[in-house]
Amino acid sequence: ELSAEIKGVRSELSAEIKTVRSELKDDIGKLDEKVGKLDEKVNTNHKELMEIFKDSISESNKYIKSLIYPFYWILGIFIPSIVGMFLYLLQK
């Protein structure tokens, strides 16, 4: 009698374990899908963020170049002309 009860309890427990395992597998599958979607979102957001950084860096580089450009004129034209005038005055 006890062995029959033990077998019944074992079969009930094994059935319960099987249902819990199948439920866990379903839940794990759903979680894997959600993680995959989140991973895709993170990758797309990372790419967009890197593009924004590249654009902002190129804009700042353009701005810096526009600030430096007048100094090229000063260094390239005015200083040599002043030196030339000074040398011309020294020759007189």
Report on this model:
With 92 residues, the protein is mainly α. It is built from 1 helix and no strands. The mean pLDDT is 91.
Secondary-structure map:
Elements: H1 2-91
Percent helix: over 70%
- Tell me how many strands there are: 0
Strand content: under 5%
Q: On the 0-100 scale, what is the average pLDDT?
A: 91
Query: Runs with pLDDT <50, length 5+?
Result: none
Q: Count of DSSP helices?
A: 1
Indicate the structural class.
mainly alpha
The oligomerization state is single chain
Q: Work out the radius of gyration.
A: 39 Å
Query: What sequence of helices (H) and strands (E) makes up the elements?
Result: H
- Major sheet size, sense and barrel closure: none
State the end-to-end distance.
132 Å
- Based on Cα principal axes, name the global outline: rod-shaped
Provide a brief overview of the structure:
With 92 residues, this protein is mainly alpha-helical. The protein has one helix at residues 2-91.
